[in-house]
Amino acid sequence: MFEFKNSIDTLPAERQQKTREGLVKQWEAKLKLMRILREKKALMLIGADNGAYQISGIWGLLQEMQHFSATGYSNFDILKIATYNGALYFDRAETLGVVQKGAKADLLLLEGNPLQDLKNLKKLSGVFKSGIFLDKKTLEAGLKGLVY
Q1: Do 113 and 52 fall within a single domain?
Q2: How high is the pLDDT of residue 71?
Q3: pTM (2 decimals)?
Q4: Longest CA–CA separation in the chain, Å
């Protein structure tokens, strides 16, 4: 289950419980809506809004994927939503979100299969960026000083 931490703990004690209860209701409503949209086969997108649940960037994206998983989407569908559906939405499915000749693709090389477990997306071995392979060591060196 989703845990609400961080800024709630900074509220006055009398507001913390009410805030947690409100966030749980909001979470349950979100899951209900996502289930309805899945059943209706709505075109869904995944995005990592900065600040969502005090998580940003890739961690927000992974959290959003877990939300989709909690509503019954398969790992295959979640990965498709995170890649191809965005390209489809922006009418660029011929060149984005696909791996084929002439397409623009940056690829992750992982040490585990995300179809078996989405947590394997955290097991990065390297990235193909614009046709150039960057191994994990190179990527980590490039991040030094960027993380706060």
Answers
A1: no
A2: 92
A3: 0.75
A4: 59
